[in-house]
Design brief:
Alpha/beta knot; about 20% strand; 12 helices; 60s Ribosomal Protein L30, Chain: A; 2 domains; alpha/beta
């Protein structure tokens, strides 16, 4: 261990500011994109502001927090515009930081002020939102459509589950919660890097494609999902947590599907499944039919 590393452990409690500056100079002495100064008010204000959609849209950026998520982004097609991390994270990951990326070492205290997590995990990345792309066409694939999903945790879990079952494209109604909401990003556990999520008028999309592939909709009453003959080239539609699929969207569903309740009818029973749970069950059943 070199002297400068030793200095951090020896001086960090007595002289924290000196130790931090020494560490910064040691790790990134040859980096033109590394900042030695303390976190500025403007930087802090902007990163915190990216928790709101209007500022994400204004800056064209969003944030991801934590070691796992940031490493997932580093290995993806997303462009990181800034990394704000503690000494320990930078020391362990200096070879993983993308070339030309702005990097700033921050203290645990500064990280806590930026983070939306109860227990911040060493690093926050600011990421550029990708340009809008052409909507995927149904064909030899399973496409997932969500209508007015509002809960960030549910939406993020659906994206994560979609990746597990090999679904590469999701199309969301424009009133579905924002993909880049920090809670959504966190709930995906990195799957947002590999599942393409599009926002569009789902009525127009279904009107255009409903005669090309089956459109399966999740309803409380419909064909028994466990006995239905599902196709792999199809569209699955999931509705709002409390209201389900809207009457307008229902017109374009070719097959209503229900996950039957195995409760024997005695005593209390839930009136419906959580939408992310229903999504997981449906995807599992559909994929099992293709094996």
């Amino acid at each position: 261990m070199c002297f400068l590393h030793l200095s951090y452990h020896v001086w960090s409690e007595r002289y924290p500011h000196i130790a931090v500056l020494l560490d910064r100079r040691f790790i990134w002495a040859n980096s033109s994109c590394f900042s030695i100064g303390m976190l500025t008010k403007n930087e802090s204000k902007k990163i915190r502001a990216l928790g709101q959609k209007k500022y994400r849209d204004r800056y064209g950026e969003f944030v991801a927090e934590g070691d796992k998520l940031v490493k997932e982004v580093i290995g993806s097609a997303f462009q990181i515009t800034g990394i704000y991390a503690t000494f320990s994270w930078l020391d362990e990951n200096r070879d993983k930081v993308p070339e030309g990326c702005f990097v700033k070492q921050i203290t645990e205290h500064e990280l806590k002020g930026l983070s939306r997590q109860t227990t911040p995990n060493r690093v926050i990345a600011v990421i550029k939102m990708p340009e809008k792309r052409e909507l995927p066409k149904p064909g030899n694939q399973l496409i997932l459509i969500t209508e007015n999903i509002q809960d960030p945790g549910n939406f993020g879990t659906i994206i994560r589950t979609a990746e597990w079952f090999g679904i590469k494209n999701m199309i969301c109604s424009e009133d579905t919660v924002d993909l880049y909401n920090p809670k959504v990003i966190q709930a995906t556990m990195g799957s947002f890097c590999r599942v393409s999520v599009f926002y569009a008028d789902i009525i127009d999309y279904l009107r255009l494609h409903r005669n090309k592939v089956p459109v399966y909709g999740s309803f409380l009453k419909g064909n028994n999902a466990f006995r239905f003959d599902f196709k792999q080239n199809a569209i699955i539609v999931l509705g709002n947590e409390s209201q389900g699929i809207s009457a307008e969207t229902e017109k374009f569903v070719t097959h209503k599907i229900t996950i039957r309740n195995f409760n024997d009818g005695r005593g209390f029973k839930p009136d419906s499944l959580n939408v992310s749970v229903a999504a997981a069950i449906l995807m599992a059943i559909i994929r099992s039919k293709g094996q």
